UniProtKB/TrEMBL annotation:
PROSITE patterns: CBM39, GH16_2. This is GH16 domain-containing protein. Belongs to the insect beta-1,3-glucan binding protein family. SUPFAM superfamilies: Concanavalin A-like lectins/glucanases. It comes from the Eukaryota. It comes from Anopheles culicifacies.
Amino acid sequence: MRWTLMLVFLGHTVAYTIPTVRFEHPTARGFRASIPDAPEVKLFAFHARLNEPFEQFEEGDYTGDITAPDANGQWTYSTNKPVLQNGTIIYYWVYVQHGSIGYLLKNKKHTVIRPKGWVAPKTTTLSPKTVAPCGQTLTTYNGGQSTCAGKLIFEDTFEQGSFAPKWQHEIRIPLDTESAEFVSYQSTPENSYIAAGRLVIVPSLVTMNADYNDERIRTGELILEGCTSIVRNPYECQRKAAHSTILPPVVSAKLNTKNYFRFRYGRVEIRAKLPKGDWIFPQLLLQPYENYYGYADYASGQMWIAHILANRMLVARDGKQIDGHRLRGGVLITNTAPGRFDFLRSNVKDDHFGDQFHVYGLVWTPEQILLTVDGFQYGTVRTNFRQHAQQHNLTQANLWNENVPLAPFDREFYISLGVGVGGIKDFPDHSQTGPAKSAKPWNNTSPKAEYFFYQNRNTWYRTWTEPELTIDYVRVYAL
């Protein structure tokens, strides 16, 4: 595995040694792994799997990025998922950022050994005298509620098998205020479901529904009952096909926590396996709760936790590789090219990001936004967005709080997960896909873009062998 932004320090005096990782098994399920705090430690990334050694730096099955020590002065990763029998071997590796230098501890293992007759301790209520102190944090949630530093403030491991109450479906047709994906987002059970403790979102051809055929797509009408249009735009709720306008040829799903959880400043961690297939892209996003600065042209911003163009092979006009081997994350403050991509950061590796699960992270502070994958920080966004936008004549700049350099990213945002297909923003014109270097079948400025995409379905649909986005867990921690 090759990480393009992995730091290597040669000829540098070693100023820090990763201490021995301490393992604890307080219950029959899960474990805790920790190292003691030390000055200048900024990140403890832990990666483990059971009874199977790592070959190199695979992501693992139990993994997390810890960005602050706990109240006991420990950098601690914890999980309650696996049931651990005596003799279970936990293979692991860790990455620690100390100052500006990264350190690795690899090829390690821990064997679970509990004393004979061990019984899981009963849960007891802490008396006021034993309650751990609550460290101050800038993180707030759900309308300004306060919390404690490092606290887990949102989690879904999808073990309950239900979307409610944490998630709601978007039901709408996306417009060109975003990417104008060639889909309708619906709550159909075949496009989003929970199975084996994981959320699965998968796009499908609308013609897989017996009620739709080629003629209806060209001449029929789609009315979305229960439409969730943010701006109450009727074009997000229904479409009449005529001439160059067709009904969305793909049905997909997009879910969010808007009615259950939103927050300002914190650390997001999503373990996911991204989709693979031509003209698909995953949406692991933070979206503005109230669109305080306006709705048009991303005036209130959007944060990308993880994004790929899921083609197995895709090359831009200039020869640059832009397929699923290139991960992108960052923020949007405009929908207009080329400024749309000014604050996206990327990381390229040998394997497609849809080949296996990875942990995608975003750390949002009042000063900067950090992007990570599997514990490695690959991007930083730190700028005065208002000044940048004014220099590029973006009208929304005058709406942003001039006293907060990171505005519009100074309000509460919610989590959004979905799968998009096609669209007129993300896939560049004249790009070529696959070993045969087939040309992208539509032009982003064409009024018939969606129609030409649909006409090419016999080609791109054959590549949809793994089109699903699979989410293992979503977590948000206070800073």
